[in-house]
What does this fold into?
Amino acid sequence: MLAGSSRLTLVRDAVEGLSRSLAAAGIAGVLVGVPAGLLARSIMKISAIAAGPAQSGVHTENGNVVGALTAEGTIAIVLFAGVGPTVGGALLYVAVRPWLLPLERWRGAALGGYLLAVGGLAGLDPFNFDFQRFGPAALNVAMFCALFLVVGIALAPVTDAVLARLARGPSGLLVVGFVFSVFGAVALVAVALGSLVSWLTTGYLPLGDVAPMLLAASVGIALAARFGGVSPVSYAAIGITLAVGIWLTGNAIVMLLR
It folds into this structure.
């Protein structure tokens, strides 16, 4: 009877801890994602200025007008280039948090480097000629790389602060954050699976589609290790995922700078 009660207590504590972690990821993802989206918008504006007046009014590969600042465009970038990816980054952080905590003040930078490695291809497409067309390619690459690092540096302390707040007792933030996090997790898994299925059926995989696959794999492997036990297999799996990301993102940066 006592053994059964202890197991129930352990399960309950694990569920509560997971719920708080997911809620913190959702809240932190929004808190950091909104300014990150605005920063991404600013980077695009800087690129337009660096490109010079001759490129004013020219359309990018995505169909956007260079230098144009519109409310609809800004909102779309904040949501899809800011909040969405940042919630995914926050999910990665809560998954790998136990391994990053020993790094103390450097854990945010480590997270930023991890996000750049596994998610960099989402923005650093080596076949996107806009990097060369609008402003110096080195400047554009440096700004986009810095964006990932800044997001990581901001996400770690913000997520930790939210976790500490949620640990003090029930809060309405728990439900709100949980909804954001679950929505972000479902979207991430859906995009990753969609990319995987498309690759298996067509044999074609755009490099940009690799990013959600690597991010989803990293979160899944880290969570499995935390709840199923850390093993050499889990370390090897996360190491391979990170190595693939570093290799592909590094090659993309080299190609963009040629």
